[in-house]
UniProtKB/TrEMBL annotation:
Keywords from the named record: Cell membrane, Membrane, Transmembrane, Transmembrane helix
Family: Belongs to the FliQ/MopD/SpaQ family.
Originating organism: Falsiruegeria mediterranea M17
Keyword Ion transport: no
Entry protein name: Flagellar biosynthetic protein FliQ
GO annotation (BP), single: protein secretion
Topology of the protein relative to the lipid bilayer: Multi-pass membrane protein
Amino acid sequence: MLSEGLFFDVVRQALWISVIVSVPILTVALITGLAVGLFQALTSIQEMTLTFVPKLAAIVVVFWISMGFMTKTLVSFFTATIIPLIAGGL
Protein backbone atom coordinates (compact mmCIF):
# COMPACT_ATOMS: atom_id res chain seq x y z
CA MET A 1 0.00 0.00 0.00
CA LEU A 2 1.23 3.46 -0.90
CA SER A 3 1.71 5.71 2.12
CA GLU A 4 0.77 9.38 2.07
CA GLY A 5 4.38 10.45 2.54
CA LEU A 6 5.55 8.41 -0.42
CA PHE A 7 2.67 9.66 -2.55
CA PHE A 8 3.44 13.31 -1.80
CA ASP A 9 7.15 12.73 -2.40
CA VAL A 10 6.45 11.25 -5.83
CA VAL A 11 4.09 14.13 -6.67
CA ARG A 12 6.72 16.64 -5.54
CA GLN A 13 9.35 14.95 -7.72
CA ALA A 14 6.97 14.89 -10.69
CA LEU A 15 6.18 18.58 -10.33
CA TRP A 16 9.86 19.44 -10.08
CA ILE A 17 10.61 17.35 -13.19
CA SER A 18 7.84 19.17 -15.06
CA VAL A 19 9.37 22.51 -14.07
CA ILE A 20 12.82 21.41 -15.20
CA VAL A 21 11.50 20.11 -18.51
CA SER A 22 9.41 23.20 -19.27
CA VAL A 23 11.97 25.88 -18.33
CA PRO A 24 13.84 25.99 -21.68
CA ILE A 25 10.65 26.44 -23.71
CA LEU A 26 9.09 28.96 -21.34
CA THR A 27 12.31 30.98 -21.15
CA VAL A 28 12.60 31.23 -24.91
CA ALA A 29 8.91 32.14 -25.23
CA LEU A 30 9.38 34.90 -22.65
CA ILE A 31 12.52 36.31 -24.27
CA THR A 32 11.01 36.16 -27.75
CA GLY A 33 7.80 37.80 -26.54
CA LEU A 34 9.76 40.60 -24.88
CA ALA A 35 11.89 41.15 -27.99
CA VAL A 36 8.87 41.24 -30.30
CA GLY A 37 6.99 43.50 -27.88
CA LEU A 38 9.93 45.89 -27.76
CA PHE A 39 10.16 45.84 -31.55
CA GLN A 40 6.43 46.57 -31.83
CA ALA A 41 6.67 49.41 -29.33
CA LEU A 42 9.63 50.96 -31.15
CA THR A 43 8.09 50.71 -34.61
CA SER A 44 4.39 51.18 -33.69
CA ILE A 45 3.51 48.03 -35.65
CA GLN A 46 0.57 46.29 -33.96
CA GLU A 47 0.24 43.13 -36.03
CA MET A 48 -1.06 40.06 -34.18
CA THR A 49 0.82 37.56 -36.33
CA LEU A 50 4.05 39.37 -35.56
CA THR A 51 3.81 38.21 -31.96
CA PHE A 52 2.60 34.69 -32.72
CA VAL A 53 4.84 33.47 -35.54
CA PRO A 54 8.29 34.32 -34.08
CA LYS A 55 7.30 32.94 -30.69
CA LEU A 56 6.01 29.72 -32.25
CA ALA A 57 9.15 29.35 -34.37
CA ALA A 58 11.42 29.89 -31.37
CA ILE A 59 9.46 27.39 -29.28
CA VAL A 60 9.64 24.76 -32.03
CA VAL A 61 13.41 25.25 -32.42
CA VAL A 62 14.06 25.01 -28.68
CA PHE A 63 11.78 22.01 -28.38
CA TRP A 64 13.67 20.29 -31.18
CA ILE A 65 17.03 21.08 -29.56
CA SER A 66 16.03 20.09 -26.02
CA MET A 67 13.95 17.03 -26.94
CA GLY A 68 16.78 14.65 -25.99
CA PHE A 69 17.19 16.28 -22.58
CA MET A 70 13.44 16.18 -21.95
CA THR A 71 13.16 12.55 -22.98
CA LYS A 72 16.16 11.50 -20.90
CA THR A 73 14.81 13.32 -17.84
CA LEU A 74 11.32 11.85 -18.10
CA VAL A 75 12.54 8.32 -18.83
CA SER A 76 14.94 8.39 -15.89
CA PHE A 77 12.14 9.61 -13.60
CA PHE A 78 9.84 6.82 -14.73
CA THR A 79 12.46 4.07 -14.57
CA ALA A 80 13.85 5.19 -11.21
CA THR A 81 10.62 6.18 -9.45
CA ILE A 82 7.34 5.19 -11.09
CA ILE A 83 8.15 1.70 -12.42
CA PRO A 84 9.58 0.43 -9.10
CA LEU A 85 6.44 1.68 -7.34
CA ILE A 86 4.23 -0.15 -9.84
CA ALA A 87 6.37 -3.30 -9.72
CA GLY A 88 6.38 -3.13 -5.94
CA GLY A 89 2.71 -3.94 -5.90
CA LEU A 90 0.67 -0.84 -5.38
